[in-house]
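Predicting holo structure, 3-hydroxy-3-methylglutaryl-coenzyme A bound.
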Amino acid sequence: MVVPEPGLPGRVRVHEVGPRDGLQNESATVPTEVKAEFVRRLAEAGLTTIEATSFVHPKWVPQLADAERLYPLLSGLDGVDLPVLVPNGLGLDRALALGARRVAVFASATESFARANLNRSVDESLAMFEPVVTRAKRADGHVRGYLSMCFGDPWEGPVPLARVVRVCRALLDMGCDELSLGDTIGVATPGHVTALLEALAEAGVPSGVLGVHFHDTYGQALANTLAALRSGVTTVDASAGGLGGCPYARSATGNLATEDLVWMLRGLGIETGVDLGLLVATSVWMSERLGRPSPSRTVRALASADSHKEQ
Ligand code: HMG
Ligand code: MG
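Done. Tokens:
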């Protein structure tokens, strides 16, 4: 049953991260053709932004070492943006050479994670990103700036709002078109989300350039998403079937499952353009390839025969 809540947006853009954030953390390496089929099925289910892969060092993320082979297999998906992660100039060269124009750099609000994930301090990584962003923009690109550890960090504990605001400002000032606020280890709670979004608004960062990226370690991702929507955010990252995590952050589990997100948004009367049945079928298909069931509650409920009745 659809029961709208006043003050929420009429439409949300789902930024699907399953093929990148989801598969980067799988212990099994998924064949390139299976990844391509996964992206195609996600597009058929109505997702229009599908983060495809990363052009990072193959030793750092071996699961995505086939980026050069995968990306060309994804041509011909009309109306679908396929952003890719690029940490540095070499990553950008690799992406541009294949025709990719939507790229994402990925910063950290904490020193420990910057070091673990990028082998750099926070400021050194920002210095690494600046020419990447400038060059991508010059090539008519669109740049997303991820910011990890916006709420808590496994080494440093709770993260002060001011540190997050500082790095967000730096990413915007260097020319990023949008930001994604990452709760990399899933420790955020709704009041913290609202407080961060208020602090960002006070620093002149409009909610229109922000996306939210919640991992679901403590089961808070949906509640956090609702808090973000109430603060004006309309871009939400999610991963089909709840796949995901980060190999360089102890205790990072799967992302908010796209199905759980779409179920909630549908109940609130918020458009996403996603066909939930096709998406669930895709996640069931992928979980068979991975040899384990999806952690998404919505996938499990809708995939079981007697739960199919429309609510
Ligand atoms: P480094 O070792 O400092 O690199 O790693 P370097 O610049 O010193 O270069 C060392 C070697 O790596 C050189 O080769 C380079 O050519 C090569 P050599 O001369 O020794 O033969 N190299 C590369 N090769 C291929 N592609 C490249 C590349 N760059 C250098 N792009 C580096 C620095 C950034 C490369 C490394 O730390 C890295 O690849 N990190 C990626 C880590 C990662 O992908 N993490 C997961 C994504 S982030 C995430 O999941 C969080 C997010 O979901 C949001 C959230 O949840 O919070 C986004
Ligand atoms: Mg992530």
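The chain has one domain: 13-310.
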